[in-house]
Sequence to fold (257 residues):
Amino acid sequence: MKKIKRYQKFIFLALLLAFCAFGVYFYHFEYRKPLLEIHIFSLNRGRSVFIRTPQNKTILIGGGQNTEVIRELTKVTPFYKRKIDYIIISSVLPAQIGGLIEVINRYEVEEIIMPKLMATSTILTQLQKEIRKQKIHAEEVLKGDIIEIEKDLKLNILFPYKDFKFNKTSLPELGLSLEYGRTTAYFIGNLSKTIQKYITKNLEIKNGENIIEFYNSAIDSKVSAELIEKIKPKFIWSTKEKTIHFISEGDRWVKIK
Fold:
């Protein structure tokens, strides 16, 4: 009888500890400090950026080439909530959107944002088929469009521009910035150096701290010096480097490894 009571007591304590641990876990995600979080994933293949807003909305830019992105998402999202508010399709390249098919099948997605002008690819056709199957609303955007995510936080579409002369090296991919208070994050991705120079001519920079993200490595041959000089970023980061996290309270950027 004493052994049974000790066993029951052990089970009770184990359940109590598990309940407390879940409470801490739940509080961490649901009642966290209102910050803008940007997680730039380092994938073996491809580009993907995950964003959590101060009011707990979620944004995913790209999905890498395969299901590797799912592993990264589980690290930064609660296991009990499989929802993404916005998925941004910035390119037709498999390395940027291949993993999104699995994301759409596993997560509840509220809205898709994609450029109105895009090239074509087999993987994009497959992805669009899944989007229609899941009946997800898709918003097509062009340069100058603004998407209000929540108070004091908005997406600015920097590219594509309908009258730009596209070619094989300058494809109609998506360039955008995310403004929160006095901080701005620029997502340049795989945009060619020519397009970067075009964006520079039409870019209005607000006072505050900036960061900028590139796909591949931010080397001179692929990055416009004029763009860097105009933005004057506090941090420059590439999705080919190790996973990094940035946070902002609206006044400055902090990098967290």
Summary: The chain has two domains: 1-31, 34-256. The CA atoms of residues 175 and 188 lie 5 Å apart. Residues 1-31 form one domain. The radius of gyration is 21 Å.
